[in-house]
Amino acid sequence: MPETLHASCVALADRGLLILGRSGAGKSALALNLMALGCDLVADDRTEVTARDGALFARAPDPLKGLVEARGIGLLRAPHREEAQVTLVIDLDQPEPDRLPPLRHITVLGIPLPLVFRPSHDHLNAAILCYLKGSRFA
């Protein structure tokens, strides 16, 4: 049974990023920035997640498929992917205080996933893209 989260999701190749945060935290903005860098939209603002075969999968609820909010511009139609396996979660409500933070995890529907907090520097888009292309070292 899917659970709907207040979250956005984008994917690069076979790796999905679940973007958590309160309203106005920048979920859609981060999704748009990553889409401009080559990621695919999966869902914006509301994301259905399902646990399957030991992994977490994300998709958009039917009425929101292919839509992304651009604050000050409106709802935009965008190419999108039907589903993606979530391999990383970012919580935009949590500022990252550490230069080299510890490995963190979050459990969603019983699935443990790597978790990062919002860094205070301007490299967020590039760092997340690099993480999705590779992984974190230590």
Automatic annotation (TrEMBL):
Question: Which segments constitute the HPr kinase/phosphorylase C-terminal domain?
Answer: 4-94
Q: Does the keyword Transferase apply?
A: yes
Glycoprotein as a keyword of this entry, yes or no, is: no
One GO MF term: ATP binding
Its keywords, alphabetically, are: Kinase, Transferase
Superkingdom: Bacteria
Instruction: Please give the Gene3D superfamilies that the UniProt record associates with this protein.
Output: P-loop containing nucleotide triphosphate hydrolases
Q: List the GO biological process terms.
A: regulation of carbohydrate metabolic process
Database matches in CDD domains: HprK_C (cd01918)
> Which SUPFAM superfamilies would you find in this protein's record?
PEP carboxykinase-like
The identity of this protein, by name, is Serine kinase
Print the organism lineage.
Bacteria, Pseudomonadati, Pseudomonadota, Alphaproteobacteria, Rhodobacterales
